[in-house]
TrEMBL record:
PANTHER family: REVERSE TRANSCRIPTASES. This is Uncharacterized protein. It comes from the Eukaryota. InterPro entries: DNA/RNA_pol_sf. One of its GO terms (biological process) is DNA biosynthetic process.
C-alpha cells in the first residue's frame, strides 16, 4: 500500500531531558562493543564493563550535572582522528576518509542522549514511516523493499511511475 511520507504531529514547544539513572548507564555499558578502538584517554570498553557497578553511579551524577547545566563536557568533545584508506592511489589524500575515535565515556553519554531524543520523536510521531535510516529494525533493504512495493502498487493501479536517483558526494 502506498503511504504518505509526512508527519501530522502535535509537538510541545520543548523537549525535556530526563535525569539518567545508574540502571540506564548499566544497560548501555552491557551492549558496548569491546573490540573497538579507544579514544584519546585509552580507556577500553572491556575495563568499563568490568567496573560498571562501581562507575555507573558516578557517571550518572556527572552526566546529570551536564544535563542540568545544558553543556556537553569539553573532555568528551575530544577525538583522535585517524585517516582510513578507501581505495585507489594512497598518495592522494582524497582516497582517505577520517574516522573519529571518541572516548568510551563520550559514547555512553551520546547513546543516553540519542535514546531520549528517539523516545521523544517516537512519542510525538515525528518520524515518518518512510524513514528507514537510524531506526530499529530498518535498513537500506527495508527502504528498497518499501520503494519497490510502492512502485508495484502504482503500476498495478495503472499509474505511471517515474524515478530520479542521485548520489550526493560529501566534501
Amino acid at each position: 500500500a502506498s503511504q504518505a511520507c509526512s508527519t501530522s504531529a502535535n509537538v510541545p514547544e520543548s523537549m525535556y531531558l530526563k535525569p539518567v539513572t545508574s540502571s540506564d548507564i548499566c544497560c548501555i555499558i552491557d551492549v558496548l562493543q569491546t573490540k573497538k578502538a579507544t579514544g584519546y584517554d585509552e580507556v577500553p570498553a572491556k575495563f568499563i564493563k568490568q567496573c560498571k557497578n562501581t562507575l555507573a553511579h558516578h557517571l550518572a551524577e556527572s552526566f546529570n550535572d551536564s544535563l542540568q547545566r545544558g553543556a556537553f563536557p569539553d573532555a568528551l568533545k575530544l577525538a583522535v582522528i585517524i585517516p582510513v584508506p578507501k581505495k585507489g592511489n594512497l598518495t592522494n589524500i582524497e582516497n582517505f576518509r577520517p574516522i573519529a575515535l571518541l572516548t568510551i565515556f563520550s559514547k555512553i553519554f551520546e547513546k543516553l542522549l540519542a535514546q531520549q531524543l528517539l523516545d521523544f520523536l517516537n512519542k510525538h510521531h515525528l518520524i515518518t514511516e518512510c524513514q528507514h535510516g537510524f531506526r530499529k529494525n530498518r535498513s537500506t533493504e527495508t527502504a528498497a523493499t518499501a520503494m519497490i512495493q510502492n512502485i508495484m502498487d502504482h503500476l498495478n493501479n495503472g499509474k505511471t511511475v517515474y524515478g530520479i536517483f542521485f548520489d550526493i558526494l560529501g566534501r
